[in-house]
Every structure is written in C-alpha cells, then in structure tokens.
Amino acid sequence: MTEAVLKVENLQTHFFTKAGVVKSVDDVSFEVGRGKIMGLVGESGSGKSVSGFSIMGLVDHPGRVVGGRILFHGRDLVGLPDEEMRKIRGRRIAMIFQDPMMTLNPVLRIDTQMIETIQAHEKVDRETARQRSRDALGQVGIPSPDERLMAYPHQFSGGMRQRVVIALALAVNPKLVIADEPTTALDVTIQAQILYQMQKLVAEQHMGLIWVTHDLSVVAGLADELCVMYAGRIVERGPVGRLIDAPIHPYTKGLIGSVPSRNPRGQPLTQIPGMAPTPIDLPAGCPFRPRCARASDICRTTPETAEHLPGRFARCFHPHLEDAA
C-alpha cells in the first residue's frame, strides 16, 4: 500500500460574513500517496481552491478552518502556530498558482527570485542555490537554463513563465505540491508538455501532487485518483479510469456527459439542468437534489459518503451502480 503523504479528514472551512456563514469546504476527506497524483475537479465555487488554501494555512479573514484534520506525514496542520507553519509552507508543501505573474516579481531576475527562495528555506551558499535553480529549470524542460536564469519574467512566454513557477516550487524538493489550475490559460500543446513534465517529476521525486482543475480531460490522463467536488463537498472519489468510464454520482455522470469528445458526432450534449447553488443558501439535504433527475424525498436528508463498489466512494442515495459494475 502506498504511503500517504497527506490525509485530510472531515475538513470544514467556513467564511463568516454579514450575510451569513459560507460553508466553502464542508466535511471533505481524501488522501494523497507518495509518488501519486490526485485530481480535484469541480465547477467554479465548488471549494477546490479553498481546500488547497486550507492545507497551506492561507485562508484569510473572515474565513477559517472550523473542523477536521489535515495530517501531513502524520502531523496535524490545523491550529499549528504561524511560526511552525512557515517552516512547512513552501519548503515541504508548495503551491503553484494559475497566474504565474502572481508568483513572479516582474522587476527581479529569475536567478534572484529562485536563489532567495532556496536560501529562505535552507542554509546553503549562493552558488549552491544557483546550481539548484539551474537544475530545477532544466527539470521542467526550459532550454539553456544558465541564460534563462539571467532573464526577467516579461522575457518569457506564458508557458515558459508557468514552467519557471513550477521550477520555483520544486527547487526546495517539497514532499507535496498543490497545483491550482496552472495550465488553464495555456494552449493545448504547452499544456500537454507541462502535464508530461509534472508526471515525470512526481515519479522521479516520489512526491505527492494535488491537481486542482475544472477540466476533466486534463486529469483523465494525469491523475491516479479523482475527487469530484460540488457545493463544498466531495461527491465522488475513485481511481480515475474507472470513475470517468463509469461514474456513480449523477453529478459526475452529468459532467462527463457534457464533454464533447465523449458524445457521438451530431448528437446534442447532455446538459445538467439549473445552476449550482450559492454556498450561503444551500438546499436541505443533498445540494445536487434540485438538479438531479434521480432525486426523491430521501434526498432531503444529507447523504453520507459510502463505498458503493470496491475503491469507489460517493455521497448519493441513488448511485448509477448498474453502469459502474
């Protein structure tokens, strides 16, 4: 059995606003194994990014983690003092953001930013930090890394900037990386190159990777396990191949049914009716109930996560077991 780098147990992150309590993450549980990639998929507002920020300890006021545990190599990060969390954040757990210019300083050269990052987390001399920066750029497929270290962010294309950000995150050899939609703004060719590099790095460095995205086609060929989020909860979890080929939860089935490549040519796409609920005004019971064709009176109560098939978990009273079996 693969050693778990991270175990999230019943995580709850709420935002306390004047309009009421927003349950952005509500009873979320998953784990990430060493050398494994977990995909976290869902619509905008489903709680994917807030889950990542909660792990990093980056949830700002008026939000806070109000329940659950975040076990990193067995150590609970919830409630950890800021000084202790700073020793873990960036050094042992790194995060890659969607927009590389949120991470890179436009007025500093790449070598300055990478060297300062390494020296902030480890006691190494400047030359050692520079060599590690060069090696990290080479790992993510950037040609002529010595020359590129001397460049500024604006001298890189969008895809190259994103590779620099990935190299920046990997330069300190973290045990866990959280990638928050890092390829969304890139063209398909560059996206495929970065996905390949990430798979290769995870296998070589035996780290854990959480890939946050709304694009099922991205994680289909990238992840080992997939978690589908809806309204702050994980509604389905399982091995990526089996989950995509035969989804259990009606929401997952609706998501996959709306992907053009999985539908016969000339036939209209299957749409999920209605809109996702606002987190501040969730319906009673199953939050997907108003949009679900299988809903019944029992769906007015909250379903618990159950193992419907070996390794296949879902929050649903009426799962699609006939197809998945």
Automatic annotation (TrEMBL):
It is a peripheral membrane protein. One of its GO terms (molecular function) is ATP binding. SMART domains: AAA. One of its GO terms (cellular component) is plasma membrane. It comes from the Bacteria. Its main location: membrane. Residues 6-256 form the ABC transporter domain. GO terms for biological process: peptide transport; transmembrane transport. Keywords: ATP-binding, Cell membrane, Membrane, Nucleotide-binding, Transport. InterPro entries: AAA+_ATPase (IPR003593), ABC_Ni/Peptide_Import (IPR050388), ABC_transporter-like_ATP-bd (IPR003439), ABC_transporter-like_CS (IPR017871), Oligopep_ABC_C (IPR013563), P-loop_NTPase (IPR027417). It is found in: Cell inner membrane. SUPFAM superfamilies: P-loop containing nucleoside triphosphate hydrolases. Belongs to the ABC transporter superfamily. PANTHER family: DIPEPTIDE TRANSPORT ATP-BINDING PROTEIN DPPD, OLIGOPEPTIDE TRANSPORT ATP-BINDING PROTEIN APPD. This is Methionine ABC transporter ATP-binding protein. It comes from Oceanibaculum pacificum.
